[in-house]
Design brief:
246 residues; alpha/beta; 31% helix; 22% strand
Length: 246
């Protein structure tokens, strides 16, 4: 496959992100899946297990399919979601369903999966249950793959979210929180910023010119309440690897 078209450093304040640019989504998916598989394999070799948190939406489908066939010891990998809508697995808007249909198949079907949705009355109850299910072995994550919305949200850190400030506070313990926001539709479950920002490999996966414009806007400002992706770009302990294709 074709290599990167470009790999450039993007500065924002004191942080430097690496921008990996590809000719198309197929090339991006191949490169990203190779990078993620390599990191997971290294973690397994180092400590006997690995953890991966992924995002939903339509963007990661090709990446998921490419990763699902990676020749690693999937039985030693725990996969979970960066965030989820408070809807059952069979709901078409469920991130769990997306992962089940595109990633948890072939060799990757033997991975352990921790869903965020739970069959309880409220997203807050589900968040408590899931936080207790995430073992100490899963955190910090070896790999976190984030997406980004056109409003500048990532994970379920939505502008105007009722618990956004707490979710983005680095002092908030690692775990899962409920968040409600007008732009989110359903109630959401999301890992806190402190759960994601120190991943061994921290990726922002975006595609299309519109998302690149959003990224450039995020890089040119500092108001996290306006564009929560800025928290990741400016305050994450791990360097952010941005993967983009038109």
């Amino acid at each position: 496959r074709r290599p990167h078209l470009a790999r450039t450093a993007v500065r924002m304040g004191e942080m430097t992100e690496t921008m990996h640019t590809f000719e198309n989504g197929v090339d991006l998916a191949a490169a990203l899946s190779a990078a993620v598989a390599s990191k997971l394999a290294a973690a397994i070799a180092d400590k006997g297990m690995a953890s991966l948190a992924v995002s939903g939406g339509s963007t990661p489908k090709a990446f998921f399919r490419a990763l699902s066939s990676a020749p690693i010891d999937w039985e030693k990998v725990t996969i979970t979601l960066v965030d989820e809508r408070f809807v059952p697995e069979d709901n078409p808007r469920s991130n769990h369903l997306l992962v089940k249909e595109n990633l948890l198949k072939g060799p990757a079907a033997s991975a352990r999966f921790i869903p965020l949705y739970q069959k309880v009355e409220t997203a807050e109850e589900a968040a408590d249950i899931v936080t207790n299910k995430v073992s100490a072995a899963s955190l910090p994550f070896d790999v976190v793959v984030l997406g980004m919305g056109t409003d500048g949200h990532t994970a379920s850190f939505f502008p105007g979210g009722d618990t956004l400030e707490k979710a983005l506070d680095k002092a908030t313990p690692a775990g899962v929180m409920a968040i409600h926001a007008e732009g989110a539709g359903e109630a959401r479950l999301t890992f806190t910023f402190s759960s994601l920002e120190n991943a061994g490999l921290l990726v922002l996966h975006i595609e299309g010119e519109a998302k690149k414009d959003v990224l450039n806007k995020a890089l040119s400002g500092d108001d996290e309440a306006e564009m929560p992706i800025r928290a990741v770009l400016t305050r994450a302990s791990s360097p952010v690897e941005i993967y983009w294709a038109p």
